[in-house]
Amino acid sequence: MKFSKYKIAEEIKKSLEELGFAKPTDIQYKAIPSIMKGEDVLAIAQTGTGKTGAFAIPIIDHLFANPKETKNGLIRCLVMVPTRELAIQITEVFDLIARYTTVEILCTFGGVDQAPQIEQLKNGVDVLISTPGRMFDLRSQGHINLKEVEILVLDEADHMLALGFIKDIRDVVLRMPKKYQTLFFSATINEEIKDLAYSLVKNPIRIQLSPKDPVSKNVEHHVAFIEMDDKRFFLERIIKEHEPPGP
Fold this sequence. Notes:
With 247 residues, this protein is an alpha/beta fold. The protein has helices at 10-19, 26-36, 51-65, 84-98, 115-121, 132-140, 157-162, 166-174, 191-200; strands at residues 41-44, 75-80, 105-108, 125-130, 151-154, 181-186, 205-208, 219-228, 231-241. The longest helix is centred in the N-terminal third of the chain and has 15 residues, at 51-65.
């Protein structure tokens, strides 16, 4: 099924078409419908499977289709990631997919001046992509309000656990509204990760991809290098679809 057939905003379809994203990867095909239904998702998927698009596409579509006023540090979607580099990478993907929409996206992380981040937070944002440390610093200063978060995304949860962020994650949950959607993505699964996941998600749809086949066989997978903030990092993109034989 091509993205052109999905019930998502035409503005998003336009972005995906220009990026060369014609057909979803396996993780996108399996996760997007459940996320669009508002279900919690527990996904075990390696880097390179297109997992960022799997949650970015339905999140942007939901926020764009259901606009709400954001102000005084209010955010509608919180994406927590373990590292600055991943925060930048995910923000790049969100920005590309959302560029023809009105969805406001902000990336925050430590090691840089927080003043520009605070200035943007004054009006509130639809999507906040952040490392735990900077997010908690800004929240403790009163610049972030989690009371109206609709969607919580934990990406590379196994890395966050390894880095000792489990207490931060649980502290976030305590400050969230009673009802919200949780999307839990991890490259690996063990008992500790499983315990954390099932303490956060409610009746989740579980998706697990084989590491031996991380990318759909119908796509050609490339890596583009992006220069940003004096660091080089990988932004994995699917830039050319190979149509399977058909009538």
